[in-house]
Every structure is written in structure tokens, then in C-alpha cells.
Design a protein that fits this description.
single chain, alpha/beta, Rossmann fold, five-stranded parallel sheet, disordered N terminus, disordered C terminus
Length: 338
């Protein structure tokens, strides 16, 4: 039997009862700062709320890379599918004598302070702070004898803190490996950076329905559309519209999912037509997902908020990056500005 055995709470559980309680006040964190409770979503393949579609080629490549590096960063824009791909890679990972046996997911999107990063990792790993001792030292001592794979999800807004943490914990824990997701690389020693590509698109819009479904983008659209309109399938009548939707959204998984959610009230042809204003249409009724994933505008706003003051002062020079009405500057008097 493999020694990759998830705990009873799932492969990404917070570990044994020694873990600091969610929302606990940790004395070392900024003089008693409260560490936000870690989100409890996405606990592995068995707990996925929606089917994982495609990415067979990407997963095969990543499985070959993972044993060759101790730090693998999946990079790409918001909505490209970094989190789902990292979780899938980690939960289907087959450990060997030299590869990690424990998997711990560390979700960072809700953190806003650099010093809280090691506390969130400690919570996920089931490590309790020791009075009068830096949490990082305690964490390194606890993880040093373990063969652990840490998945650090959404590092971009804490990029410097995550880079420092990774450098220190990798140096102190020779059996530890890290998969990080970020919109930019961590740039730590020995890091391998892997750019997450869009989903594959159909080669033409006049393919048969069966041929269309060879495209991961089309398969994703069909799967999510069937969830809101049972019985939805790719047909000779809607294949061109679905191909147009996927192409207009550049194979971006988040955008495709949000567009597919509209099939409950709109036809594929109507969605394709409305995607001329591509940042206005896709929105979902899902209330439990991350706010930054509920609309395309929210995904872009998340990126905009990560800009430094020096960088953000240049965005008004691009009319399509303005948050004020853009009028005819975007080529459409009814266009909604970002």
C-alpha cells in the first residue's frame, strides 16, 4: 500500500488536533494579530464540486517535472486554472521513496499581511506555535523529518513574503517540496516556472459534435452548461456558436465557466453575440466561490489591486483599463469599462 494516505478529513486536511484553531490569536503574529480562518474549499479530487476537465497533456508534463525540482511554480493570469491544476497534480501525485507522501494545501488568497504566511502554513501542517520561539523555526523542526508536498495557492499578492518563506523552509527541510500558484514567479533558488496555457480550442467551427469535443475548452463549456440546463449537448446547430464562445474567451477556463452558466437563460448563439462586450456578460450565481472568480471584471480588479502605486498610475492611459465609463474610446458607446 502506498504511504500517500490522506487523513480522514481529506488529503488537504489541517492535520492532527495539534493545529492552531482557525482564527486563533497567535502571539508572534504582529503582537497578537488574528490569523483568518483558512478556507475549507477544494480538498482534493473526491471533494471537487465540479468535474475536472481535460489537461491530460499538461498533467503528464507536470508529473514528469515534479520529481526533478523542489519548487514548482504554476504561473498564469487570473482564471487560467492554476489552482485546479495544482490541486489535481498534488492529489494524483504518486510518491516514491524520494518523493513526498503528505500533501498540504495552503490557501493564501484571503491573507493581507506578509507575517501571517508561516502561520497559515503551520495551520495547514498541524503545527502549533511554541511560546517565545519564532513560528518558522518550529515549523522547520516539525517538517524536517517529514516527506511533505506543500501547495501554496495564490502567492501573487504576498510574493516577497512567499519567496522568503519558500527559500527558508526549503533550506531547512531537505525532504520538502513545494507547488506554488502565482501570477508571477517567486524567483527562488531551484524554482522551475511553468506557464499554465489556455484550454485547447477547436481547430474549426464546422467540425462534427464528436470532433468538437476533442477540444478541452468545448468539453468544459458543455459540462458546465449541462449543469444549469440538463441535457445540453454539442449539436450540429450550436457547434459554431460554442466554438465562437470558446475562441472569444481565448480558452480561459474561468471565462468559459461563467459564460456556460448563462445557458440556463440564453442560447449559445445569444451568448456568442453578447460576448462582444466580453467583460459584462459572464457572471455567475455561485455565492460560495472566491469573489475574484465570480465575474471577469472581478478577476481583472484582483490583478489591478496587486499593482504598486507607481504601476497603477499608468493604467488610466489605456481607456480599456479605466474604471470610469469609456464611451466611444473602446469602439462601442455602450461598452462597460473595467
Amino acid at each position: 500500500m502506498s504511504d500517500f494516505m490522506p487523513s480522514s478529513a481529506g488529503p488537504f486536511s489541517a492535520g492532527p488536533s495539534r493545529a492552531a484553531p482557525s482564527g486563533a490569536v497567535l502571539p508572534g503574529a504582529a503582537h497578537g494579530s488574528t490569523v483568518p480562518a483558512a478556507p475549507r474549499a477544494g480538498l482534493g479530487a473526491d471533494a471537487e464540486a465540479t468535474a475536472f476537465i481535460g489537461r491530460e497533456t499538461e498533467l503528464a508534463e507536470l508529473r514528469a517535472i515534479l520529481p526533478t525540482t523542489r519548487a514548482l511554480t504554476l504561473c498564469g493570469p487570473g482564471g487560467i486554472g492554476k489552482t485546479r491544476l495544482a490541486q489535481r497534480l498534488a492529489t494524483t501525485h504518486q510518491p516514491t521513496a524520494n518523493q513526498p507522501a503528505q500533501v498540504r494545501l495552503v490557501e493564501l488568497a484571503d491573507l493581507r499581511r506578509d507575517e501571517l504566511v508561516p502561520y497559515r502554513v503551520a495551520e495547514a501542517a498541524g503545527v502549533t506555535e511554541e511560546p517565545g520561539r519564532p513560528i518558522l523555526d518550529t515549523l522547520i523542526e516539525a517538517l524536517r523529518p517529514r516527506r511533505t508536498l506543500l501547495v501554496l495557492d495564490n502567492c501573487e499578492h504576498l510574493i516577497n513574503a512567499c519567496a522568503r518563506f519558500c527559500q527558508q523552509i526549503l533550506a531547512g527541510c531537505p525532504s520538502l517540496r513545494i507547488i506554488a500558484t502565482s501570477r508571477e514567479p517567486l524567483r527562488v533558488a531551484a524554482e522551475k516556472i511553468w506557464q499554465v496555457p489556455p484550454l485547447t480550442l477547436p481547430s474549426a467551427d464546422d467540425l462534427s459534435p464528436a470532433e468538437m469535443l476533442r477540444s478541452d475548452a468545448v468539453r468544459l463549456f458543455a459540462d458546465r452548461a449541462s449543469a444549469v440546463r440538463p441535457g445540453f449537448t454539442i449539436t450540429a446547430d450550436n457547434r459554431a456558436a460554442v466554438a465562437a464562445i470558446c475562441a472569444a474567451l481565448d480558452g480561459l477556463p474561468l471565462a468559459i465557466e461563467l459564460a456556460a452558466a448563462q445557458v440556463g437563460v440564453l442560447s449559445a448563439e445569444q451568448i456568442a453575440t453578447l460576448l462582444a462586450d466580453r467583460f459584462r456578460l459572464p457572471s455567475a450565481d455561485e455565492r460560495t466561490g472566491p469573489a475574484r472568480h465570480r465575474t471577469l471584471r472581478a478577476a481583472i480588479d484582483w490583478s489591478h489591486d496587486l499593482l504598486t502605486a507607481a504601476d497603477s498610475k499608468y493604467t488610466p492611459t489605456c481607456p480599456c483599463a479605466s474604471r470610469k465609463p469609456a464611451g466611444n474610446s473602446c469602439g462601442n458607446r455602450n461598452a462597460t469599462a473595467l
